[in-house]
Design brief:
Layout: H1 18-24, H2 26-29, H3 48-61, H4 67-74, H5 85-105, E1 109-110, H6 115-124, E2 139-140, H7 142-159, E3 168-185, H8 196-207, E4 219-227, E5 229-236, H9 249-266, E6 271-277, E7 281-284, H10 301-313, E8 319-326, E9 332-334, E10 340-342, H11 349-364, E11 368-373, H12 378-391, E12 395-397, H13 403-413
Parallel strand pairs: 5-6, 5-8, 8-11, 11-12
Antiparallel strand pairs: 1-2, 3-4, 6-7, 9-10
Helix pairs in contact: 3-5, 7-9, 9-13, 10-11, 11-12
């Protein structure tokens, strides 16, 4: 193989930590529609201009710009002369463009051409000039979402103390798993996981020497059975998740991606599915979690539970659970003819009754429902407590800032506790 060597030319971007910069850009890359003028389908935050502005914000207000690089950009030139304002702006723009190019080269973002928009702009005679971001859009890649899920998992576990991620432990002892209990005499049917020390000791005590090992001397090591778990993550993507001056959906997506990364790397025997519920409900691929935005306005909790239950009933796992993240009261219902019954006031007796019937169906199927609430309305708290009592689950009343710690610790602990 022939190699081509080129001269190394130092660049401003060499001084930056691209991983930290990507983490600072996560709010833009995982954007859920917050701040888009009330339109949950507005994609204006996915333009190259928005990416450009977010990089500038991360450099100056996110602590990503190192002091020595700041000095190179805004300090004196090599000859000791002060740089002009235009020179400083040009260097800063060059750095931002290098960052965008590095993100493209690393496979974090792509910029597919939008020929229809370009033609329309040219036809109107006001198309973007050469070099301007204009309407050029970018798409977040699977690699970027996987990296952000890893960073979210690392940050969330780090903020909740030293925890070791392992498998789900149970109280039952076996002879075929990793040894952690006292040895026992071998019985027919046990896995022949011999404890050599205990076996020889029995032989010596019985015969005075280790030469003649008998059936009655055999001792096997005992370990703990470790169970597998099937989880459906139910995300409320109704419009209330980005209203009232707070973005609740982006933190929920970040937690979902962290949980997905945790299961994929630490609990390979477990399964995770994602269900979105709004006016209706549907399952989405896990890899699409980071791209999801808020949808229609109502909260069809019953339909979300129904879709989740059907998914879990197909899973042959020791534990089956639904992790529901929501901030609103059930306010919609899918009727037998497919029409959506809606009541924007919430807690409609008809809607609540049908939703609780679905909760009872989940409990009958042995499915636990753990609810993570991002609101504290009195009537909503009462409804959640009733759901918890029916399915022997847990209720967590938390905030977008502490949501991740609660979800991940609950998944790894599996301890019975109530947090209010």
């Amino acid at each position: 193989m022939r190699y081509c060597y080129t001269k190394y030319l130092p660049s401003l971007i060499d001084e930056l930590d691209m991983d930290d910069l990507m983490a600072k850009l996560s709010d833009l890359l995982l954007s859920s529609g917050f701040g888009d003028g009330g339109d949950p389908f507005d994609q204006g935050d996915r333009t190259m201009q928005a990416l450009h502005d977010a990089i500038l914000e991360a450099l100056f207000n996110g602590g990503v710009l190192p002091p020595d690089l700041f000095e190179q950009l805004f300090g004196k030139a090599a000859d000791g002369q002060d740089r002009s304002m235009q020179e400083q702006v040009d260097q800063l723009e060059q750095l931002v463009q290098q960052i965008i190019d590095r993100m493209k080269k690393s496979g974090y973002v792509t910029t597919p051409p939008d020929l229809d928009i370009a033609r329309a702009e040219r036809a109107r005679g006001n198309g973007p000039r050469e070099g301007e971001p204009g309407h050029v859009r970018f798409e977040v890649t699977d690699k970027a979402l996987d990296f952000l899920g890893y960073r979210a998992l690392r940050d969330l576990l780090g903020s909740s103390g030293h925890s070791s991620a392992g498998r789900h432990d149970t109280r039952d002892l076996s002879t075929g798993i990793e040894a952690s209990g006292a040895p026992k005499p071998y019985e027919f049917g046990d896995t022949l996981n011999l404890d050599a020390t205990a076996t020889i000791l029995n032989t010596v005590q019985r015969t005075g020497g280790p030469a003649d090992v008998g059936y009655e001397d055999l001792m096997v090591a005992r370990g703990e059975y470790q169970s597998s778990c099937a989880t459906v993550l139910m995300l409320d993507c109704s419009h209330s998740m980005i209203l009232y001056g707070e973005d609740r959906f982006t933190p929920a997506k970040r937690v979902a991606m962290a949980l997905s990364h945790l299961i994929r790397t630490q609990f390979p025997g477990d399964t995770l599915h994602a269900v979105l519920f709004h006016d209706s409900a549907e399952e989405i691929p896990i890899r699409e979690l980071g791209r999801v935005r808020v949808g229609p306005y109502y909260t069809n909790t019953r339909e979300g539970l129904r879709v989740a239950r059907r998914i879990l009933e197909r899973q042959r796992k020791d534990m089956r659970q639904i992790v529901m993240i929501t901030d609103g009261k059930p306010s919609a219902l899918t009727q037998p003819d497919g029409r959506i019954y809606k009541n924007p006031m919430g807690l409609d007796p008809f809607v609540i009754g049908e939703t609780l019937r679905e909760v009872a169906a989940c409990a009958k199927s042995g499915i636990m429902i753990n609810t993570f609430m991002l609101a504290r309305d009195y009537d909503l708290v009462a409804f959640v407590r009733r759901v918890t009592a029916m399915c022997r689950g847990k209720a967590y009343f938390t905030t977008p800032y502490t949501l991740g710690e609660y979800v991940l610790m609950d998944y790894m602990d599996k301890k019975t506790r109530m947090v209010h």
